[in-house]
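Archive maintenance. Older records in this collection stored only the sequence; we are now back-filling the structure field for every entry so that each record is complete. The fields below show one back-filled record exactly as it appears after the update. Entries are processed alphabetically, and STAS/SEC14 domain-containing protein is next in the queue.

ARCHIVE ENTRY
Title: STAS/SEC14 domain-containing protein
Organism field: Pontibacter rugosus
Length field: 121
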Amino acid sequence: MLRILPETKENLLAVQISKELRVADFDQYRNLLRDLMGKYKEARLYYEMIDLDLTDVSAVAAVENGMFDVVHGLDYGRVAMVGEKKWQEWAANLISPVKKKGVRFFDLAEKEQAMAWVQDE
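Back-filled structure field:
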């Protein structure tokens, strides 16, 4: 499930995902990011994962999202991924090279620091 967080403003998209992530969730997420990338020089992303297992992510959606990241990597500003599992940290490190400013992983207990970091110049 995708939830848009109230911290979303200007060039920052703040989302929380939990339980399961399907193609429709990824489509909504990508459309929001694409809109920000069209309006601003860079789009910042705060991506919080709660109670999400790797098996909860649609394989098709994950591949489509990976392709989006490769195509639009230079349109990203800071990206903070917040999670609670080792595979989530691994995923952040895997996609970091295709993002203009990389990806920084934060533990769920550090979500306030992650939000402050992603908003910092």
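Update note: The CA atoms of residues 84 and 108 lie 5 Å apart. Helices lie at 23-39, 59-72, 86-95, 111-119.
Entry marked complete.
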